[in-house]
TrEMBL record:
Lineage, top ranks: Bacteria, Pseudomonadati, Pseudomonadota, Alphaproteobacteria, Rhodobacterales
Organism whose genome encodes this protein: Paracoccus pacificus
Superkingdom of the organism of origin: Bacteria
Sorted UniProt keywords: Oxidoreductase
Pfam families assigned: Ldh_2 (PF02615)
Designated name of the protein: Ldh family oxidoreductase
Length: 343
């Protein structure tokens, strides 16, 4: 067993990229995938960190993702809709292609949408949101998943975990960002509890008979629950409609039918919206950014924590100290770098 180790963000990203290149991904696919995985590890979001590598490789081995896909940006039709066909590849590569065009269109028109079709999605949404807030834009992102969440009052999985994220630019400071699954927790959290042999908190899941359970195995065989009861269920349904039906792509039940299993990564589309505060506030008195700072400052002034503050604090620690991986995590990387290693 290797020892625990500490890596710079760049060094760990190189290792993860190398794993994917050795597995057959093109550089265009491997680079963005590695970057978003290491962003999760850097920000101490373990459920979206290097834990995700194995799921990517299992999906590749199952033939459900195209490792050398070349995403295609649709011809400009003069509208606010930017469309990228991921061609069966990973979503981060498609976003990397479409994001600059989305930002340019949003600054020009005030609002624009990026539609990504035919992609394999596994990653957190905040890296995409932060890429847009860094360009002075407010942004939203959402996507379905595969059926693993029961609708409020239901007894079987139908909805996906259906993440939703929002960001507001704050100049030189960290943006205001939230990113959460519309299930009580992300599915990765259930899996991490299973691996650790820990029971789930009550209210996270039901078993295959629709009964409440704290057993991770029973939860994975049954269904997770939406956050906030009927309110979370309604938001999750909205995401199925907007980022599934509306963009001509799969809803979560269709994605599960296509994959046949929840053991690999979901396949569907994604919707990202970008807004120019300057354009929306044009002609009105005052500065929208200054107004927002006053409002966010009032929240902090009450002692409330803004979302993502813990992520940003973790990011600052990593900048000073590096990313620490325990011995098991280092062993995982070494096994996956070995061409003869198993997934």
């Amino acid at each position: 067993m290797p020892d625990a180790a500490t890596y710079s963000t760049d060094a760990l990203e190189n290792i993860v990229r190398d794993i994917f290149l050795r597995a057959g991904l093109s550089a265009q696919q491997a680079g963005p995938v590695a970057a978003v995985i290491v962003a999760g590890e850097r920000d101490n979001c373990k459920s979206h960190g290097i834990y995700r590598i194995e799921g990517c490789l299992r999906t590749l081995a199952a033939g459900k993702v195209q490792p050398r896909a070349v995403p295609v940006l649709a011809e400009d039709d003069g509208t606010a809709v930017v469309r990228v066909d991921a061609r069966g590849g990973f979503s981060p590569a498609a976003f990397a292609l479409g994001a600059p065009v989305l930002a340019e269109r949003a600054h020009k028109l005030g609002v624009a949408a990026l539609v990504i079709n035919d992609c394999t999605h596994f990653s957190a949404l905040w890296p995409e949101i932060e890429a847009l807030t860094a360009r002075g834009l407010a942004a939203m992102a959402m996507c379905p998943s595969y059926s693993s969440v029961a609708p409020s009052g239901g007894t079987a999985p139908l909805l996906g975990t259906n993440p939703f994220a929002f960001g507001w630019p704050r100049g030189e400071g960290h943006p205001y960002v939230f990113d959460f699954a519309t299930s009580v927790v992300a599915r990765g959290e259930i899996e991490l509890h299973r691996r650790a042999g820990k029971p789930l908190p009550e209210g996270w899941a039901i078993d295959s008979d629709g009964r409440p359970t704290t057993d991770p195995d029973a939860a994975l065989a049954g269904a997770m629950l939406p956050f906030g009861g009927h309110k979370g269920s309604a938001i999750s349904t909205m995401i199925e409609l907007l980022a599934g039906c509306m963009i001509g792509d799969m809803t979560s039940d269709a994605a599960l039918d296509y994959l046949g299993t929840t053991a690999i990564l979901p396949h569907h589309g994604e919707l990202i919206l970008a807004f120019s505060p300057a354009r929306f506030a044009a002609g009105r008195p005052g500065d929208p950014f200054a107004r927002a700072e006053a409002f966010l400052g009032a929240i902090s002034g009450q002692g409330a924590r803004l979302p993502s503050q813990r992520r940003f604090a973790a990011r600052a620690r990593v900048a000073a100290e590096g990313i620490h991986l325990n011995a098991d995590e280092v062993a995982l990387l070494e096994r996956l770098r070995d061409p003869g290693g198993s997934v």
